[in-house]
Structures are given as C-alpha cells and as structure tokens.
Amino acid sequence: PDDVYDAAIRRAGMLRVYTTDQLFAAVNTLARAKPLYGERLALLGNGAGPVVLAADALQYGGGQQAGLSAETVAKLRDLVPEWSGSGELNLRGDAPPERYRDVVDVLLHDGDADAVVMIHAPNAVVDPADVARAVAPLAKASSRNVLACWLGLQSVGEARAIAYEAGMPAYRTPEA
Q: What's the CA dihedral at 36, 2, 20, 174 to 10 degrees?
C-alpha cells in the first residue's frame, strides 16, 4: 500500500515524487544544489501571485518559511519599503536587477534563512538575463542555496542558463 511506501520513504529521509515534473525538479536540484543544512526558505519575487504560490506550495509540502532577524527585516524594509516586514517579499514588477541582488545578498547573510527562493516573471521593463547576471555571483560565492524560478520558456532561457552556470537550480514554476 502507498502509505507503507510513504512511511518508509519518510523514515529514510527521502522525498517522494508523484509526477514527472516533480522528478525532473528533484534531479535539477540534486544536480546543482549545495548541501542544505536547514529547511527555512526565504521567498522573493517580482509579483505577488508567484511568491504567494511559492509560499502556499511550501506550506502544503510541509516546508518552512524563514523567520528573519530584526536586523534583516530593517535592511529589507529600506530596500523594499512596500514590504510588510514579514512573509515573502514582493519586489514589484519593475524591480531592477540591483534590487534583486541587494535583497538576495541581505537574505544570504541572515542566519535564519537556510536558502533563498528567487522568482522572476518576465515583463517589458526588466531583462531576466540581467537579473540572473546580478544574482549569479552571490549564488556562486555563498555556502547557501539560491533556488531560482524563471517563469516562461524562451524569454527566460538565457537567465536560466546563467543560473545553471552559477550552480543555481532553476525551475519553471514557483510550485516546483
């Protein structure tokens, strides 16, 4: 029975996949991710919808969103004044690459965030490849993971390639 497999897989510390998409996402993660020393994820993106979808998927999957230190919250409020100070960060659709870089840098230095999930939905204002180029050096230099979600296909192909080169797992959807 399935519940026996679920229990055995859980007890062994493994993650069970149920779809081909989940299988490829798991392979993508295992091929590129650094060792993970905790499960607290900090979420950011350039739109409310995608970051909320990521937060929901994290919650439904039994994951944990990072609770950030007061110092980190203060720094992030300076960078993203519209942010409430808790939960996922919506950088807004017009967020320039430098804002992504600065926010990811702050999050990577917070001891309460074990990894960062960065989401970018393409738009007419910001080139996704520029965002990838801004964040890639941080991801490459950090001992923590930066997981990237580049929504779209051809319009984010270069960004996804830059992320892969920097050792960042990159996904097509926030849920992945």
A: -50
pTM of the model: 0.89
- Which two structure tokens, joined as six digits, stand for 44? 């950011």
Rg (CA), the chain: 16
Residue with tokens 């993650």: 15
Torsion of CA 112, 59, 137, 102, to 10 degrees: -70
Which amino acid is it at 129? A
Residue 69: partners with Cβ closer than 8 Å, 6 or more residues away? 110, 111, 112
Q: Give the model confidence (pLDDT) of 4-42 as tens digits.
A: 988 998 889 887 888 888 888 888 787 888 877 888 999
Please, are residues 142 and 106 in contact by the beta-carbon 8 Å criterion?
Answer: no
